[in-house]
Amino acid sequence: RMLTLLGERADRAIGLDLSQQMLNIARVNVSEAGLAACELRHGDIFATGLPAGSADLVTVHQVLHYLSDPIAAVTEAARLVAPGGRLLIIDFAPHSLEFLRSQHQHRRLGFSDEEILRWLEAAGLEGQVSETLPTASGEGLTIKIWTGTRPANANRSAA
Predict the structure, then answer these.
(1) For 122-159, what is each residue's pLDDT tens digit?
(2) What is the number of domains present in the chain?
(3) What does the pLDDT read at residue 158?
(4) Are 15 and 41 within 8 A, CB to CB?
(5) Contact between residue 48 and residue 76 where contact means Cβ atoms under 8 Å apart
(6) Which pairs from 101-106 meet CB under 8 Å and 24+ separation?
């Protein structure tokens, strides 16, 4: 989804997913949007194989709540961020919808601002809470957007 939203602004964009099914859906969406600069790869969020400091923008969109080790995923994503670049994390605020564990394989019931900001800082980024997107009805899941920025003068080996 993020490639179709941001892909036309990019000189080059890489979408990475471990699920072949999600990659197939993304290929259709990217093709229909005519995004020639977007590349899709089968890969692991914990070990992307991409060079350190190679991205101006990295997005981790609605995936952390599925992971057994979200800190490792944030650390790997932060490693990719170039000096002056950003990491956007989009996921759920804390909630109590336990059925999501059994029916949708969620391992985590959202994340607090303090938790995500601590992970961003530990990975060498300056974190901030960018947006809170409540549901239209005021009930259910609230989406949060956290931003981590690598200082422009940062040493690439810091993360």
Answers:
(1) 999 999 998 998 777 666 799 999 999 999 986 544 44
(2) 2
(3) 45
(4) yes
(5) yes
(6) 105/66, 106/65, 106/66
